[in-house]
Amino acid sequence: MSGELGSSDGALLSARNVTKRFAGRVACRDVSFDLWPGEVLGIVGESGSGKTTLLNCLAGRITPDAGSVAYATASTGTVDVHRLSEARRRLLARTEWGFVNQDAREGLRMGVSAGANIGERLMAVGARHYGDIRGTAADWLARVEIDGDRLDDRPATFSGGMRQRLQIARNLVSGPRLVFMDEPTGGLDVSVQARILDLLRGLVERLHLSAVLVTHDLGVARLLTHRLMVMQGGAVVEEGLTDQVLDDPQHAYTQMLVASILPV
Amino acid sequence: MPDTSTPDTTIAEGAYNYAYLDEQTKRMIRRAILKAVAVPGYQVPFGGREMPLPYGWGTGGIQVTAAIIGRDDTLKVIDQGADDTTNAVSIRRFFARVAEVATTTCTEDATVIQTRHRVPETPLKEGQILVFQVPIPEPLRMLEPRETETRTLHALSEYGVMQVSLYESIARHGRISKSYNYPVMVNGRYIMSPSPIPKFDNPKLDRSPALQLYGAGREKRIYAVPPHTPVKSLDFDDHPFEVEHWSECCALCGSKESFLDEMIVDDAGKRLFVCSDTDYCEGRR
Ligand SMILES: Nc1ncnc2c1ncn2[C@@H]1O[C@H](COP(=O)(O)OP(=O)(O)OP(=O)(O)O)[C@@H](O)[C@H]1O
Ligand SMILES: [Mg+2]
Ligand SMILES: [Zn+2]
Fold first, then answer.
1. What single string gives the DSSP state of each residue in B98-122?
2. Which one of A42, B66, B109, B222 has the lowest number of neighbouring Cβ atoms within 10 Å?
3. CA–CA separation, B137 vs B118, rounded Å?
4. Which of these, A224, A111, A114, lies nearest to A168 by C-alpha position?
């Protein structure tokens, strides 16, 4: 059933015919899907297939040339992400959403302590008790398995894996309902990756998070996502439950992807 | 503001317009001032002209003063609290010559006070205008170097990052260590840099009966705090804003209430504390 904003009843996020061009060249074309509460949707595809572009359109970071993105807010009904005022979109982004960048340096403030990084969202919505903010930050540091004595250290002194875990804590501290992730384990050692994937899986389950996760790693997709969209040249060529898509790919491109990477 | 719209033709130098600036520039600066007064704490860009002075001299403050001053005004100029530094003396002489105004060192007698780094100890009154020289007008600059982004942050009142810097200060030093240029919230809306005054002076900005004008020459920004406007120094509930305290009193006037400068008075390193506000100190002796 279709709602007036181009969304399905009960969906948390609905994309309809999202298209984005750069200098006339299509980066993502005519993408439509619904994300249901508690669901983790994976977007896979080779480099340049339009994954990041689509994710940025969904999260309101870039404006699509055509199509719409509807989001069901916690309290004010369903909104068209790209028709919101900038003020409301930014408020949404730092309260109900999270965004985990591949490069943690882009998602963190490298010049301030881990505690300040985690506390920022709390302060942005009005928290003014230093002791409480610090306590919450310490709590989240523990939840992402970073030693408590690193609370006052700057992320510049952290390893790549620790930075990524800090970025996750910084996003989740405000209790978002929906998290966008762009290659959250890209560029990390395999053993470091595994630990972060475990952590993410646990957090998603415990916090009942919904997520859109971009990766070119089918192993990551298998481990974390419920449903999968396969992109090629900006378009979605196949979509379905993750296990089905990976075990029984229908599209030739997906078969190629799976053949070259599986088994995980 | 006094009426200064009529250009002076009698001024001896002839080469200069009344109060140095040409009328068009003054109009432009006055428009910026009016806008700044209407939106307390908001930085208004202005198309100021280049002054034949280095920026450190306080060209922003001088342009503001030049745009508002009239022959009936009495001007006081202070630099770090003192009326007799080279800077203060030069600026005072400049306006005595180009604007034919009376000058004074007495806070109570002044109608316009141009200042760098201090707010006078003597409480200001209705009708007085305090003009601040501002080196860096943007309070978020150290945290966010991109101008387009700081504008957005102000426009949307997204001030989490400012609080982050205070958090960081407590995490490192156990307290908010910023002692100059301590950020304030003006009228519950805009975060503002009070210029490099000691935080000791921040409470004097709050609901002051005088008009506060802030001029930044290099970045060409003017902002203002109209009389009786709430000005709150940022803090945390469990780390409230506090001003400096001294266990000593002024060695010259005995004041326990004023901002003290530490001086080394002999070769043996003997220290004395004296009022930084020289006019206030002299008036008490
Ligand atoms: N800002 C931009 N300006 C111009 N072209 C862009 C821009 N961003 C992306 N593109 C182009 O759009 C296409 C899709 O890029 P996108 O970054 O979305 O791919 P991706 O699937 O995320 O790739 P990767 O796996 O390498 O991150 C590419 O051809 C890319 O060059
Ligand atoms: Mg990408
Ligand atoms: Zn004294």
1. HS--EE-S-GGG-SEEEEES---SS
2. B109
3. 16
4. A114
Ligand 1 pocket test: pick from A21, A26, A29, A49 the residue with the most ligand atoms within 8 Å of its Cβ: A49
The domain B23-139+181-231: what is its CATH number?
A: 3.40.50.11310
Is there a contact between A228 and A221 (Cβ–Cβ < 8 Å)?
yes
Residue of A nearest to B142 (CA): A111
Q: Report the C-alpha gap between A140 and B171 in whole angstroms.
A: 17
From its phi and psi, is residue A84 left (phi > 0), alpha (psi between -120 and 50) or beta?
beta
- What does the alpha-carbon distance between residue B147 and residue A62 come to, in Å, rounded to a whole number? 20
Is residue A30 left, alpha or beta, with left meaning phi > 0 and alpha meaning psi from -120 to 50?
left
Per residue in B141-191, pLDDT (tens digit) is 988 889 999 999 999 999 999 999 999 999 999 999 999 999 999 999 999
Q: How far is CA A214 from CA A72, A90, A211, in A?
A: 21, 21, 10
- Evaluate whether A224 touches A40 at the Cβ level (below 8 Å): yes
Residue owning the nearest CA to atom 13 of ligand 1 = A27
Q: Are B137 and B214 in contact (CB under 8 A)?
A: yes
ipTM over 0.85? The verdict is: yes
> In the annotation, is B41 catalytic?
yes
The full set of domain ranges for chain B reads 23-139+181-231, 245-285
Tokens of A123: 């302060």
Q: d(Cα B193, Cα B180) in Å, to the nearest integer?
A: 10
Q: Does the annotation count B106 as an active-site position?
A: no
- Predicted pLDDT of residue B9: 40
